[in-house]
């Protein structure tokens, strides 16, 4: 019975996060309300609060899920049977990150506010999954680039993860941002998540 109850709770949380994710594709964080999320689901606003205490907690749950899914992709690379050179590893990691648009968007746009307005235990859950990302990333480096020292791997890791926070705004500038760049004649090149990630890792790997 307890297992069935947990499965039901998890399923309902997933439905709420799915609705939030759908809205986030079209609206900004500040514009999304619990009422909006309720309208996208079968749950009333009071019912949603049985699973999340705030909008920020829904986004934190969504971010945690995104990192979990990225970790699965990184594990596939780390446990793969193919031999990858530096260029191949850069391409594989870039490809895995290309699918994590929502993860990059939340991290770049709203992470601080989300963390500050979520329960401590949920923040710990997210940090645990994030830590796994760091560890699996380093495992990939250790497996495929054996000549890198531990300190070299750490330097790459500490450079890459903060770099990721800037990927989304660069790939998806708003119309207002584009207009401002045009106004001052600031050259802007259209790039993809894959391209930015691959070029950076290629540079870091040497």
Question: What would your notes on this structure say?
Answer:
The structure is a single chain. The radius of gyration is 19 Å and the shape is globular. It is built from twelve helices and no strands. Helices cover 74% and strands 0% of the residues. The longest helix is centred in the middle third of the chain and has 25 residues. With 206 residues, the protein is an all-alpha fold. The mean pLDDT is 95.
List the helices and strands and how they pair.
Layout: H1 2-24, H2 34-39, H3 45-48, H4 55-78, H5 86-98, H6 101-109, H7 111-116, H8 120-144, H9 150-164, H10 167-171, H11 175-183, H12 193-205
Helix pairs in contact: 1-4, 4-5, 4-6, 4-8, 5-12, 8-9
The ordered H/E elements are HHHHHHHHHHHH
* Major pleated sheet: none
Query: Approximately how much helix is present in the residues?
Result: over 70%
Mean pLDDT, as a whole number?
95
From the helix content, strand content and strand pairing, which structural class follows? mainly alpha
Determine the strand fraction and express it as a percent band. under 5%
